């Protein structure tokens, strides 16, 4: 019986300042795939925000799908994929994580692996190296995740955070590798303790929806932002101007170069209007928090079921 699948994966932001490599939030922008088993691989890119790749075997979605199949001792049949994306590449919004999650879900559906969300996160972490963005894309909402020395993945998630965000999406890229290379190899005990305490305070403020406090802690990171802000032109000016325009706080989204402001829900349009024209190299756009995570619809003989 012929089956088709539609898979929708949300974008994500990670860190929120001090929650380095652990905090993730799913965002209301999506990578969407239509999937059908075929005799040969074919990938149609139907939107911008997608890489130019001629060989399907070099496509991250295909690589993640094939890796997932191999981990389960199976061979993935070829598929036709129609792909659209609202997630800009190399902008700190989890584009690679969403592609990896998409590939894992392709294998899960086509091979009927019946993977749990936690199973999918384990595979995604093995492929990407850290779970924060993938956890948000899989579970939705607000997530905290970690990978222990033995490979065990721990994750907490909740949708009960009424936060609102505005993104400053630049017209230039910042490769994750360059952002990683800017970081020190070690931290003093004093800095590590203070940075960890600030991350704890941020988490507590978000979970209690104390957004003014959360905004303060977002701007007090010691793990990565002091080293990455200089890689993003105008970032320090944006943080100052965003505060004047009403933001609770502003931080780098993931590894950057997108910046993210936490604002009062309902004020997003006014916030953007107050900053209109000040940063022409950045597109300001409001974005909500996705609470569903990855969604799959299965189509069989003309009928659909979620």
From TrEMBL:
Is Cytoplasm given among the entry's keywords?
yes
| Cellular localization per UniProt | Cytoplasm
User: Major place of localization?
Assistant: cytoplasm
Identify the residues that the record assigns to the GHMP kinase N-terminal domain, covering every copy.
60-141
Please name the top-level EC class of this enzyme.
Answer: transferase
Record function comment: Catalyzes the ATP-dependent phosphorylation of L-homoserine to L-homoserine phosphate.
Name by which UniProt lists this protein? Homoserine kinase
Species this protein is from: Psychrobacillus glaciei
